């Protein structure tokens, strides 16, 4: 194994570890907090998190074994099942992010009617459509025997070994990425740019009120005035940073793999196996980054994590104090005798 392979193995192992722990923590927060579960976005987050965990425990280990062994890591049936899951989970993940962006758009653009427009039933219908949409492509690929081990990506994924089917497979792959990656990217851009526009409008209104207040309060200390202006600047940048993170992580993780798949099919340019595996690792890294981007950095999830940690520490302290009490009573008993 050369240094490239060792680096890819390390990247895969690190991605698996972070993804497993962070997605499991999101699930714990969802189970612990009734407030989070009552909200419609919880269904999208649950769908995304379960998909990420399934990808972490099934697809990533098989790819790791493929990189190490440099060949198909499992039997044909298991590899076809993993390829089916890989195709389904990739589309489901992208569409779940699009659903979360639609939810944010409704919440920001229509705040007064949000509860009426985005109920749990509406969220469940969106998740059902996501599953139906995502299942269409792997089911078609399974029927056409286009699932198996792809040496370039060291993964069980979409592939066709018959040269006479190259054009049909290329059209199918192009349609899959257009209706999963491209569609989700367009939805993300449209919804989050609308959200950014509304956020900037509200920031301007708050800035006007802040400036008027600062003008009226002539005796205000300069340091307080500076803090107000600094907070005003941070407020303007906050929405831009969040939206850039949502769209940026989507592009950085998925675009290299999608572009590589299309170049492989529609171009004669040779693609190195290390780049193929690296692009696949980047796609997997979305499963590790999603919990932080969409869940764990939000106030409700941080609060839930603190409550879970406090409960664990409280139980441990009760258990240790109970053990201390037992040992103390055992030490006293011989003396009393």
From TrEMBL:
GO terms for cellular component: plasma membrane. Orphan receptor. Displays a significant level of constitutive activity. Its effect is mediated by G(s)-alpha protein that stimulate adenylate cyclase, resulting in an elevation of intracellular cAMP. It comes from the Eukaryota. This is G-protein coupled receptor 26. The lineage of its organism: Eukaryota, Metazoa, Chordata, Craniata, Vertebrata. The gene is GPR26. Coiled coil: none annotated. The keyword Transmembrane helix applies. It is found in: Cell membrane.
């Amino acid at each position: 194994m050369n240094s490239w392979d060792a680096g890819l193995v390390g990247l895969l192992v690190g991605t698996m570890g972070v993804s497993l722990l962070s997605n499991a923590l999101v699930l714990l927060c969802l189970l612990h907090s009734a407030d989070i579960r009552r909200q419609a976005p919880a269904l999208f987050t649950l769908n995304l998190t379960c998909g990420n965990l399934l990808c972490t425990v099934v697809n990533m280990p098989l790819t790791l074994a493929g990189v190490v062994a440099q060949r198909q890591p499992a039997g044909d049936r298991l590899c076809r099942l993993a390829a089916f899951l890989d195709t389904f989970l990739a589309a489901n993940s992208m569409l779940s992010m699009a659903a979360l962006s639609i939810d944010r758009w409704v919440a920001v653009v229509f705040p007064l009617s949000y509860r009426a427009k985005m109920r749990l039933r509406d969220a469940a219908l969106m998740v059902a459509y996501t599953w139906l949409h995502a299942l269409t492509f792997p089911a078609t690929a399974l029927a056409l025997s286009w699932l198996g081990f792809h040496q370039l990506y060291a993964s069980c994924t979409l592939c066709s070994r018959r040269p006479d089917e190259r054009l049909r497979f290329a059209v199918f792959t192009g349609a899959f990425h257009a209706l999963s990656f491209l569609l989700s990217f367009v939805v993300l851009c449209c919804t989050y740019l609308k959200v950014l526009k509304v956020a900037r409008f509200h920031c301007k209104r708050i800035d006007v009120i802040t400036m008027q207040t600062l003008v009226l309060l002539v005796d205000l200390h300069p340091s307080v005035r500076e803090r107000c202006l600094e907070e005003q600047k941070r407020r303007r940048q906050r929405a831009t940073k969040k939206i850039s993170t949502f769209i940026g992580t989507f592009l950085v993780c998925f675009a290299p793999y999608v572009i590589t798949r299309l170049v492989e099919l529609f171009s004669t340019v040779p693609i190195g196996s290390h780049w193929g595996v690296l692009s696949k690792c980047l796609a997997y890294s979305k499963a590790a980054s999603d919990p932080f981007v969409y869940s764990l950095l939000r106030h409700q999830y941080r609060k839930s994590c603190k409550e879970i940690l406090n409960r664990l520490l409280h139980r441990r302290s009760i258990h240790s104090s109970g053990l201390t009490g037992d040992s103390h009573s055992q030490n006293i008993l011989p003396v009393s005798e």
